[in-house]
Write a structure and sequence with these properties.
Layout lengths: L2 H64 L3 H19 L7 H23 L2 E3 L12 E7 L9 E6 L2 E3 L2 E4 L1 E6 L1
Parallel strand pairs: 2-6
Antiparallel strand pairs: 1-4, 3-6, 4-5
Helix pairs in contact: 2-3
């Protein structure tokens, strides 16, 4: 073999090694770029999951604050019912002493209603209104002359709304 052929072979071998190194570097670069893309995608998913979790927890906390005290209000409504029953007794002929006693009940009842109103607890108005299954429970039905069907004839137990949420539906009698 001639010297020149030897040089050509050496040059080809060197160039072949350079190409192999380049190819290997390109493969490594492509592999690293793929891994980087995968990690970026994972980071985006984790960030989105974190933001969703944060938003949900803030909404839950907001709901908890908005309806804080709902359970005690429900129990107070039973006391309000008892006060209303006692106050209705004043409509009958009672002795002056008992009537004065009921005046104290009326004052306590008024204070209790004012406190509930200040906490955004409102009575559901339903007498002579259309029956609403969301805020009312129809316990009885009755055919009433001159009244169209589906109207509330009598309220058997008042219903209440707390911050736009029905916490106790009204129990009503509905016309047929």
């Amino acid at each position: 073999m001639s010297n020149e052929t030897n040089k050509n072979v050496n040059v080809e071998v060197k160039e072949d090694k350079k190409h192999k190194k380049k190819d290997k570097k390109n493969e490594e670069l492509e592999l690293l770029q793929n891994q980087n893309a995968i990690l970026n995608e994972k980071l985006l998913r984790i960030t989105a999951d974190y933001q969703n979790m944060k938003r949900r927890s803030e909404e839950e906390l907001s709901r908890a604050y908005k309806y804080d005290g709902e359970e005690i209000i429900k129990e107070l409504l039973n006391i309000v019912d008892n006060f209303e029953r006692a106050i209705k007794l004043d409509d009958t002929n009672l002795s002056d002493e008992l009537s004065k006693f009921l005046e104290g009940f009326k004052m306590i009842y008024t204070n209790l209603i004012n406190i509930l109103n200040s906490k955004n607890v409102r009575e559901i108005v339903c007498l002579n209104e259309d029956f609403n299954p969301v805020s009312m429970n129809a316990v009885l039905t009755e055919k009433v002359e001159g009244m169209e069907p589906g109207k509330v004839v009598e309220v058997l137990q008042k219903g209440y709304v707390y911050n736009d949420k029905v916490i106790r539906p009204a129990m009503v009698k509905v016309s047929e």
